[in-house]
Design brief:
homodimer, about 350 residues, 2 domains, 10-stranded mixed β-sheet, two-stranded antiparallel ribbon, 11 helices, acyltransferase activity, transferring groups other than amino-acyl groups (chains A, B), Thiolase-like (chains A, B), Polyketide_synthase_type-III (chains A, B), acyltransferase (chains A, B)
């Protein structure tokens, strides 16, 4: 068993709404031959605002990969430290209570990794195990919860801390005017989030008790979501084929729920879906015959924050805590998608004593 | 329990001996003000030859980060596929017998990761779990065995495949004439290795049964071993402070052996140490009061291959299989070190039925 307790989500201070962003791109690419298509598609993302690590002027001016990666390190460590301290304090825990520290983040690269810096700076135990993940993109949040579930199956008295650090704005490439890239520039938001996963729930704990997990990789789909790695950093690429992925993963999700819950997806009480984008959510609705209400929290996260990559599932989970409508024993599912194409899925029960 | 079976180690075809390498560097930096010191220190590494992914002319000519990372992907995937097929075949296993695929590699960056490509290309099951690690450097091999141990504790009937892909020659920076960098250019070798870790040993299996694990991070030591990430790729940096690390980790290793085996390190039958370099091995000998014989396999790996990063522990372990001197019930230890500064340690018993 593994109890995911209330996450902490932190957003950097610089906010931009989609109208402002459209103006920024129009200024950057004044002669784009397909501008009306681009503008229509940006409006179709249903993203209204996003938080960014830096003012938009700095985001769109590429100061070099080295500068960006140093900024990633400084601000990533600062915000990850703050999120760690906040979530531990909210759980009435100290760094020494954590046995495994997972940091997931696909928008910068460090060696030593953020896990090492956090263990050293915040005085975690010197034997804290570390699991730093950088190559799993948006699926990494749910992936980490699944790995934490496996870990606490082996060590039921251990606790895991998961931190997600995503600054997609550091991947803005001002010379890339591909339509899909311009849309992506308006889709992803920056955020740092954290949560504690307990191997054994304690009296009074509330949270999402993961009881089953599944993983999926679609063959020959590496071009769906990918980075090109260049001297200018990571260049995000999204192929429209990615829309074919949900029809393949939906039956797996259906079987997963059917087998373990003997239920239909709409019979479940809560649904935590990664917000790859509006169309991915539409595909989920269509392929799982979901009622709209069951994607509403994911759509709301997308609307006000954009796609915050591996942090989305923590944000949507956090909304379940904030809404405070969950009853002890409620059943639910979480699913996230990322490069590969891969999916990570889990199911479980809401605990509220 | 987790049984590490015989590894496969593959070396790329281009070989260079240290005398040739000294000539190459002398040509590249003909006016180096400290050349005699550099040459003396290179000879002191006790590395005699290394295998490199490319001919030395291509290694020393930086063709750009993008070119190098593409080469990393193409050749990494090619050699990782070959090593995977070989080690599975030697274990009389098929890709579908693997439940968790771990790829450790700190010399390139891919998204999707090598785990995804291997699962897709070699027809692993679509629900194979993936664990791609890129930020743990030389410690990643032993780290992965420790994580495989935890995983099989939760899933005793599962099997794990570990693949290590290390092409340190892709990090050669021809404009970096720091003494420590010139030494590093003569220290690291390229290799791809793989091994299977079984949750439950079968009749007739031989291997290293891991029975206990430990992790260690030394506070405020992030500068010991690190990458600077620039438009020209990863710049490896080694601080001489790293020599202080072994005196801190040695007591932990002693306690770990004493507590579980009630033994002294020299009482153990086999010793698998990461070969950070000659001085790191000297420090181990000195701080653990090791008899020379117990570091001989690590020194030999360093001499003929250089430091092959996360693959070293698999190479030294492989030498135990090849030497064929292990008896059923022999006791041993493995320890590796990497950026952080971190150490991963495990202990166990040789199984030979």
């Amino acid at each position: 068993m593994s109890l995911v307790t209330k996450p902490t989500i932190m957003f950097p201070e610089h906010q931009i709404n989609q109208e402002e962003m459209i103006d920024v791109l129009k200024d950057l690419f004044p002669y784009h031959p397909k501008w009306s298509t681009v503008e229509r598609m940006i409006k179709n993302t249903q993203v209204e605002s996003r938080n960014l690590l830096s003012p938009i002027k700095q985001v769109t001016t590429h100061p070099g990969f080295e500068y960006r990666n140093n900024l990633y390190k400084d601000e990533g460590l600062r915000m990850a430290s703050e999120a760690t301290q906040k979530v531990l304090s909210e759980n009435k825990m100290k760094p020494e209570d954590i046995d495994l520290l997972i940091v997931v983040s696909c928008t910068g690269f460090l060696m030593p990794s953020l896990t090492s810096y956090l263990i050293s700076d915040l005085n975690f135990r010197s034997n804290t195990k570390q699991l730093p993940i950088v190559q799993l993109g948006c699926v990494a949040g749910a992936w980490a919860l699944n790995r934490a579930h496996e870990y606490t199956k082996a060590y039921p008295d251990h606790n895991v801390l998961l931190v997600s650090v995503e600054f997609s704005s550091l991947l803005f490439q001002p010379q890339d005017d591909k339509i899909s890239s311009l849309i992506s520039n308006c889709l992803f938001g920056d955020a740092v989030s954290a949560c504690v996963i307990k191997g054994t729930p304690e009296e009074g704990d509330e949270g999402y008790l993961i009881e089953g997990i599944d993983s999926y990789l679609k063959k020959d789909s590496d071009h769906y979501i990918k980075y090109d790695v260049k001297s200018t950093g990571f260049h995000f690429g999204l192929d429209k084929d990615v829309m074919h992925s949900i029809k393949d993963v939906a039956p797996i999700m259906k079987d997963f729920i059917q087998k373990d819950f003997n239920a239909n997806v709409n019979d479940l009480d809560f649904h935590i879906f990664h917000t790859g984008g509006r169309k991915i959510l539409d595909e989920l609705v269509s392929n799982l015959d979901l009622i709209e209400e069951n994607v509403s929290k994911s759509r709301e996260s997308l609307r006000i924050h954009g796609n915050i990559a591996s942090g989305v599932v923590l944000d949507v989970l956090n909304d379940e805590f904030i809404a405070n409508n969950r009853k002890n024993g409620d059943k639910g599912i979480m699913a996230a998608f990322g490069p590969g194409f891969t999916a990570e899925i889990n199911r479980g029960t809401w605990i509220k004593n």
